[in-house]
Design brief:
The protein has 13 helices and 17 strands. It has 432 residues and is of the alpha/beta class. The chain folds into 2 domains: 176 residues, Aspartate Aminotransferase, domain 1, CATH 3.90.1150; 247 residues, Type I PLP-dependent aspartate aminotransferase-like (Major domain) (Aspartate Aminotransferase, domain 2, 3-Layer(aba) Sandwich). It has an 8-stranded mixed sheet with strand order 4-13-12-11-10-5-9-7, with helices on both faces. A 4-stranded mixed sheet has the order 1-2-3-16. Strands 14-15-17 form a 3-stranded antiparallel sheet, covered by helices on one side. Helix 3 runs parallel beside helix 10, helix 11 packs parallel to helix 13 and helix 12 crosses helix 13. It is globular, with a radius of gyration of 21 Å.
Length: 432
């Protein structure tokens, strides 16, 4: 068992400073037990904690570190930027450079606005959709997470089509009532929602690759259906690509599936892992954004020069020929090896993947498309397996509902060894 003496000490201290001792809930390790690991450094595919334990990292800061930790191209650009200052609250050349890299290679956006997080990107995109359409209601899907915005922290009520119910204290029901929640992959529910509220709907908001509550891969036909029905009702289709953007394809799920949304949101992957995000759309839609239009949105740290520099370094690497093809092929081979181990021991589970994203599903279902298809009891198995993986030097996000990520610096040798270690941990996790 790995030592957690220093992490334990730091956690006890942090309990006096922060709610639950953490600054984001999942970090508290409540779903996997034990003390959170306090990380000291990361380099390449590895993390080191305060006790000196080394882990092969499959969390990758929840996705954006597609080039691994402390990538030299990003590091040197950040150091160079810091020499000139860290924040100006004014335009810089670097904003233009990063925007050009995105827009010139992305057929789905003509203008973008940089913000400081994925949550802020989605919040702003919804406001623009409301301003553009003159409508108030939003349709979202059970099992998709879009940040901690009041009217998006909702769950489905009873019935096929319902107004959202608050899923967090502090969210007024009047806010949640502007959000309609339906199940993923359910055309009937979406049709009914549009029949009832279609001319009140400003936008349909979806993770085209839902990856915040398991990897709930949607049938492409369902996404095409959403594209068609939103056009029919003149409702905007917003793709929340905070996880999938620049992960499965340079143009995200929109490029992967070749489906054009009206608006798209990206997260910190465009800043090499630094705090940044953006939303984008056509010139017509973005003309509604202040100072060109009446939809107000601002941010002192938007377009921060350090984050922009990191993003330029990262996206330049991602544009190299064959980058995504090689990363997806490597992920596929890793998943095959892991699944072979699972099958050898007849464990009732499957490993799903798309691009360089993968997820350990504790059931025999060949595919899981909705949150309701995930057995909550299976998280007991993950909890036990998680401790075993840590002891073997494997690090995942501390929740069985979270996905894993492969980076460009995970080598075949590392992944071969990891597949065995993960497989062993899963086998022990299934033991009574």
């Amino acid at each position: 068992m790995i030592s957690r003496e220093q992490s334990n000490t730091l956690y006890q201290e942090s309990l006096g400073y922060f709610p639950g001792g953490v600054n984001s809930p999942v970090r508290a390790f409540k779903s996997v037990g034990g003390t959170p690991l306090f990380i000291e450094k990361g380099d390449g595919p590895y993390l080191w904690d305060a006790d000196g334990n080394c882990f092969l990292d499959f969390c990758c800061s929840w996705g954006p570190l597609i080039l691994g930790h402390n990538h030299p191209e990003i590091r040197e650009r950040v150091i160079e930027a810091i020499h000139d200052g860290t924040s100006f609250g004014a335009p810089t050349r670097k904003e233009n450079e990063l925007a050009k890299l995105i827009i010139e290679h992305n057929p789905f956006v003509e203008k973008i606005r940089f913000v400081s997080s994925g949550t802020e990107a989605v919040m702003s995109a919804v406001r623009v959709a409301r301003g553009f359409t003159g409508r108030n209601k939003i349709l979202k899907f059970e099992g998709c997470y879009h940040g901690h915005v009041d009217y998006l922290l909702v769950k489905a009520g009873s019935g096929l089509v319902t107004f959202g119910e608050s899923s967090s204290a502090g969210v007024p029901e009047s806010f949640a009532s502007e959000t309609i929640v339906v199940g993923l992959n359910d055309e009937q529910a979406v049709r009914e929602a549009f029949e009832q509220y279609g001319h009140e709907l400003a936008a349909v908001l979806i993770e085209p690759i839902p990856a915040n509550n398991g990897l709930l891969l949607q049938d492409r036909d369902f996404l095409v259906f959403l594209r068609e029905i939103t056009r029919q009702y003149e409702t905007l289709l917003i793709f929340d690509e905070v996880i999938s953007g620049f992960r499965v394809n340079f143009n995200g799920a929109a490029g992967y599936y070749n489906i054009a949304p009206d608006m798209v949101c990206y997260g910190k992957i465009i800043g090499g892992g630094l705090p940044v995000g953006c939303y984008g759309a056509s010139k017509a839609i973005m003309s509604k954004v202040s100072p060109d239009g009446p939809v107000y949105q601002a941010g002192t740290l938007s377009g921060n020069p350090v984050a922009m520099s990191a993003g330029i370094g990262q996206l330049t690497e991602l544009l190299k020929p064959g980058f995504y093809e090689e990363l997806e092929a490597k992920t596929h081979r890793f998943v095959q090896r892991l699944q072979a181990y699972i099958d050898t021991y007849s464990l009732p589970m499957n490993v799903y993947h798309i691009g360089s994203i993968f997820w350990l599903n504790f059931s025999n279902r060949p595919v899981v498309r909705t949150a309701a298809e995930i057995d909550p009891e299976s998280m007991r198995i993950f909890r036990k397996a998680y401790a075993e993986m840590l002891d073997r030097g494997i690090y995942f996000g501390p929740s069985g509902y979270e996905v894993g990520f492969i980076s460009a610096v995970h080598t075949e040798e590392m992944l071969n060894e990891a597949a065995v270690k993960i497989g062993e941990s899963l086998r022990i996790g299934h033991l009574e």
